[in-house]
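Weekly modeling sync, notes
Attendees: S.R. (lead), two postdocs, one rotation student

Agenda item 3: backlog of single-chain predictions. S.R. asked that every request posted to the team notebook include the full sequence so nobody has to chase files. The rotation student volunteered to paste the first one in as an example of the format we agreed on. Action items at the bottom.

Example entry:
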Amino acid sequence: MTTPAQDLSDYYSALARIVDDQVKLERLQKALLGTPLDNQELAQLHDIHEELEKRAGAAESLGKLAAAYTELTGLKTPADVSEAAASLGSKLSAIEQLPGASTAPPLLPNAGKALAQLALQHDERKLAAAMDPTMAALAQTFTQEKPAYDSINRTYIGLAQSLALELIKRHQADPGDLLAPALQPFGLASRMPEDHIPQELEEYAREQIHSQGDEEIASHEKASAAMEAALKELSEHMHEFATQGHLAGKLPPLKLTVVELWTKQIL
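Predicted structure, as returned to the notebook:
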C-alpha cells in the first residue's frame, strides 16, 4: 500500500502545482490582454490548492501508516502504528469539500475521526478494522471528485493554449526549438531571424500547441482513471482482510506507471 499511497500523494501535489500555475496564467492574461482579474476566482483557486494539499498530506500519512504495519515485527511497535494512525486520522478530519466538486460527502472527515479515536487505544486489530472504512472513503471520495480533478487540468491546459496561441499571433514566441529534431543530432542550434519567422513554422507551432495540449489532457485522464481503479482495488482487499482476517490471494502489484509518468511531468 505504501507505493500507491505515495503515488496518490504525488498526484494531489501535481494537481496543486497546476492550480498554482493557473493563477500565474490568470495574471499573465491580465498583463498581455488586459483581462480583469476575477478576485472571486482567485480566491476559489486558493481554496482548491489548500484542499489538494490536505489530500496530498493525508495520502502521505497513509503511506507511513502502511509502512508501520508492515514493520511491526521489526523496529516498529504498536505505539508507532497508533501514532501513524492518529496522524492520518487528524489529516483526514481536516479535509473539506473541494471547491468545484458536485458533492460534499463527509466520508473522509468521519473516517478520520474514527481512526483517530481508535488510535488512542493502541489496538492494532481495531486499527486494522478501522482502515476498512477509511480506504473505502478514500476510494469513494476520489471517484466523486474525479470529474473536478479532470476539469482542473483541462481548464489549465485550455488557458495555457489560448495564451500560447496569442503569443504566436503576436510574433512574441520563438518557434525555433521546433527545429531541434533536425539540428541537435549535429550539435547545432537554431538562429531564427526575429523579424522573419516563416509562416509555415508558426502554423506548425500552432499545431503543436493544440496536439500537445490534447495529449496532456489525455495523459492526465489516464492517470486519474488508473488512480481511481487502484484505490478501489485497495479498498476491496482491505475489506477482505478486515472481515476475514486474511487475503484469499497475494495482493498483486498495482501498476501505476501512467500516474507516475504524469506526475513527473508536473513536479
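Discussion: group reviewed the output briefly. The CA atoms of residues 176 and 193 lie 10 Å apart.
Action items: rotation student to repeat for the remaining queue; S.R. to check formatting next week.
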